[in-house]
Design brief:
The chain is 47% helix and 12% strand. It is an alpha/beta fold. The structure holds a DNA duplex.
Amino acid sequence: MSDSDDLFVRHDPIFAQKELLEINHLPDEGRIVGRDEEMKNLANAVNPAIFGQSPSNVLIYGKTGTGKSLCAKHISQRLVDTAHEEGVDASFAYVDCAQDSTETQAVQTIAAALNEQIETNIKIPDKGIATSTYYKRLWQILESRYDVVLVILDEIDKLEDDEILMQLSRAGEAGKVHNCKIGVIGISNKIKYKEKQLNERVKSSLCEREFVFPPYDGNQLNNIMEARRDAFRDGVLEDGVIPRAAALAAKEHGDARQAIDILRYAGEIAQSRGVSKVTEEFIVDAREQAETDRFRELLRGSTPHSRYVLQALTILSLNDGDGDGYRTSDIFEVYEEVCRQEGANSLSLRRVRDLLKEHAFLDITEQSRQSGGSAEGSYTEHRLLEDPEVVRDVLVDTIE
DNA sequence: CCTCCACAGGAATTTGCGGGGT
DNA sequence: ACCCCGCAAATTCCTGTGGAGG
């Protein structure tokens, strides 16, 4: 800071190691806070893999930002390392089922993650071949390279069917794979996932062990953020900042990811204002920004019509504030108007129903079934879960 | 208990695209 | 070159449903 003879800025005045605040950053073990019990349980479940035996299949429940993926990845990595020391060839594959929601995409990702083309001489193309071909190649890879493999299926409830779970659990028995054990770690944030139409044999094999990750409390959030203090330069963070952010995040959902986002945005706000300290009053803005950002992320990649539908609902919500729910047919009418203005052909009512359902699935809206009673029929009402103003703003600059 | 309405939502199918294997 | 595969988007057709009032 005091190198006054420097012509150029030699370093970031706020951040020292910004990577520590990236969502995907995997901290070293000392930095995982408040999940000791969970880590122990997980380790215990997969432990047999170290001796080349079958690990237990695991299902992890918990809301977003409770450290599910983090712990799963961390344990898997540790397991692979330890197994190596014992002379066992182990590896793990991580699949984000929100991204790879079909059976084929999921197998492809697993196979690609475990493959090493130079070594196996097996090609795993991104797409274009039959699902069964992916399986055949995957089994080949497993046979030739590994003794034991862990498959992490994150957001497993986003998977369209459980065929892949069937295949994985059956691989050994059906003689597809002889010398390689497979363990599955499923991660879900919908508690009712298991009940909801899971094939009976999949259910029993997948759910050998079940763990629930509770939300973090204010104290733990505080520690989590404290552990990443090194992301900032010395003296940049004022004392009250972390406790304040922790309290705010704990009040909402106990979501660690959001807490860390808030911290990062607070730093960025300081940066853009050209000040050298992060103070408490930045926190409120930072939280707002974290939320807008999360929402923008949800909408990224959605089709124009999906956005028009959302826009229709937003228009309705803005026009009468008291509104607690609008029925599909009303939304559809506004939607048709939106389409006219945008110069697009409107889709069928049936399709719009599906689009609305998708929004509900992403927790952008909420649906509830209503009944009008006598000869009034039954219908579904939709309401926005986010602030309509925020939605409108995000929609406006997403459409460009 | 039955009816009646206004929908919900499942099933089947089409279209069009990107990208295989041989 | 040709045919096959997966998949998303969308349509069409159709059956299912909740509950107040008869």
